[in-house]
Amino acid sequence: MSKILFLYSSTDGHTERISKLMMQQFSLTNNKVDLIDCNLMPKMNFSDYDKFLLGASIRYGNYNKNIPKFINHNLAEIQKLKNGFFTVNAVARKPEKQTPDSNPYVSKFLRLSSWQPNKIGVFAGKIDYPKYRFFDKHIIKFIMYITGGPTDTSKSYEFTDWDAVKKFTEDFDLL
Question: HSE on the CB side for 80, CA within 13 Å?
């Protein structure tokens, strides 16, 4: 049993959904999990935890600006714990972009931060056109058009491999 500090950043709610599913899975193995939205960023006492996990979504090629600030400010404390990171992005819908070594947003994250997580995961996200505002809907449609993704704005497209999420959670639990 571990006590896990689990921080997440979700743009449209899908990373939050993934994080909550992972939290439930951790609870099945009697872990205590504090799941915290990175936008709330309370002061944390890292000594209360055995593990640290961060999940972050991408929008227009960028992570939430709070993520690098948090990592850089708390790097020494994070490195004392068993730790992990996962990213959720639409690029990972392509099989050749689903690993930490092949996903450009993992590379970007590692360049932005001095942190080298013990465990890294990549999950394909969701395109939810009906939920997006006008601007976002059309910019994302254009990005999908040039990258060979779905462009019908009347539909939602979920690309997440839930078995991969479960496997990552199990592997992180074993750290």
Answer: 10
DSSP 62: B
Q: What is the pLDDT of residue 128?
A: 97
Give yes or no: residues 131 and 92 share one domain: no
Residue 113 has pLDDT above 90, yes or no: no
Residue 12 CB contacts under 8 Å (≥ 6 apart), including other chains: 57, 126, 128, 131, 132
Q: Which helix (H) or strand (E) holds 21?
A: helix 14-28
Give yes or no: residues 136 and 87 share one domain.
Answer: no
pTM confidence score: 0.94
- Regarding whether 118 and 144 lie in a shared domain, the answer is no
Report d(CA 24, CA 49) in Å as an integer. 18
Owning domain of residue 132: 126-159
